[in-house]
Amino acid sequence: MAIIAISIVTGTIFYSRYVANKIAKEERQKVEMWVEAGQSLLALNENTDTRLASYIILKIRENKTIPIIQTNERDSIIETVNLDSVKALDKFYVEKKLQGFKSQNPPIIWSDPVDSTRHNRYYYGDSKLLKEARYYPIVQLVIVGLFIIITLLALRSSYRSTQNQVWAGMAKETAHQLGTPVSSLSGWIEMLKENPANEHVVADLQKDVDRLQLVTDRFGKIGSTPQLEKRDIVAQVSTMMDYMKKRTTGKINFILNTQGKKEIYAMISGPLFDWVIENLLKNALDSMEGKGNIIVDIFTEDKKTIIDVIDTGKGISKQNFSKVFKPGFTTKKRGWGLGLSLSKRIVEQFHKGRIYVKQSEHGKGTTFRIELIA
Length: 374
Prior knowledge:
This protein is of the alpha+beta class. It folds into three domains: 2-126, no CATH class; 140-208, no CATH class; 226-373, Heat Shock Protein 90 (2-Layer Sandwich). Helices cover 54% and strands 18% of the residues. The chain contains eight helices and eleven strands. The strands form three sheets. A five-stranded mixed sheet has the order 6-8-9-11-10. A four-stranded antiparallel sheet has the order 2-1-4-3. Helix 1 (2-42) packs antiparallel against helix 2. The protein is elongated.
């Protein structure tokens, strides 16, 4: 299809050039006839056939489109034809036109048959028709280019829309599939609570069920437009750091810096924002191999709430800064490479914020930055 389109455009361009060259030849012939007619008119006398005189005058009047400037052998301007009558009063305008005509077409020279040292030059420019024929391919290319760009943007938008529908469909189906067993487990826990001997077992089961319920809630919100609420980011991040701290070795230090502020607010969806922080913390833990520091800085800047998640892990190469957010990209032996991709969708599509790799150095660590509307 693309080859056919290119062939059509190429053929049209070559044909347009052929037409333009043909018009240019015809216009030069017209100017030559006009010059000849003008000189013949000067040579008329009372014995000249009136029919011939009328024919010559007709030929002179036929040229209403081709602009002409007549000069003498020293290129001093004698007469102008088909130029703007008002602008032609300006000497500089006519001289500028003369220079333009010289660059467009070679002049037609008339030599005086009596005085060989005397001759006139006739410089002429392109008519409106010829200009349109010459510029038509350029206009056509611009239109085709715009059409291609619009088509590509439409295809890209359609592709993204399809992706979003797939994501939403998977999320809704996952939430639906988890909902039934989670409800069943909650019922079993209530039955186990009736026996005091099951107290410790029930507590652990309840934590796992709560976790499953949280995951279900997250997937349910991914599949629909979440409701954003003004929430305390410090409390949200602190809760997720405590959760991750319990699941790591004592060699990992978690540090939360808030610039002395106890509360910093932003418009977020709680469950989805927690998911982002959890993914970033897990990513930091995986890069440190069991020891190091995870620092989360929270502050406000230019009406934005900034969250920096800093680790002292192995770092990310610069060429992978943008790749880490693509689905399927991972440097781990096990994993689907979806955590950071999901985080990017949550932050940028649902929260209208921004997430990116602020900086990273091999062997020293990485800083991920989240920017939210304060």
